[in-house]
Write a structure and sequence with these properties.
This protein has 268 residues and is of the alpha+beta class. It has 11 helices and 9 strands.
Length: 268
Amino acid sequence: MTEKRTTESMIEPHTITSLVDDFRGLGVKEGMTILVHSSLSSLGWVCGGPEAVIRALIESVGEEGTIVMPAQSAGNSDPANWMNPPVPESWWQIIRANMPAYCKDTTPTRGMGVIAELFRTMPGVKRSNHPTYSFTAWGKQSDYILEEQPLEAGFGDRSPLAKIYELDGMVLMLGVGHDSNTSLHYAEHGIPNPPLQEKSAALIENGERVWKTFKEIDYDSDVFEQIGKEFEKSGDYYCMKIGKATCKLIEQRKIVDFGREWYQKQSM
């Protein structure tokens, strides 16, 4: 939808103040730890764009709260596994030799949306150390959430997702579906003997750039929408329209536990 059509379809624009009211109406409270997945365009016209959304989130959770966003950089991975789009095999070794090493400060996100991309650059926002599956966070629990993220289990135990689970955090979905619900990757770690995949990324090790190869779960989000829809049948979540976007607030533990049970049933 063009910006002109977006403005014509709205009675008035979103502002920081109106978004705070909306987030609180959805159930966001001061002191919460929230993992945010977002689509700016789904909200309609926002005065101040992604910055306004971020500032509204910060105001909503307050100084005692914590905001986390995915900061995945899927481009820093083995090109042999790229599918959307694939690249010629003749390019693979060139990419492996020349991909810039992961840097918390400069490596851009990919496919996370403009809100998450701006968030990683905001004052006070910190980032985890995984070269492909990093997270960013602002607030009281940011250091604890980001302090470790195992290379071989980017979404597993001791990852930011596991820390959010321990803190009884929430998942806030702003105009996106469960295919964006990264917490369900944590549920994949409950699969008995999950398939592993050889992965690689450029990173700094002992002060030098290296192309590091490691084995990790072959993460697959293709069934996340199905899992999410089945979870929602319980009605155990909050949902409301914010502008043109369907927004949901979910207790992360509940959907992760549901996802684990779902995977275990599939493996029987």
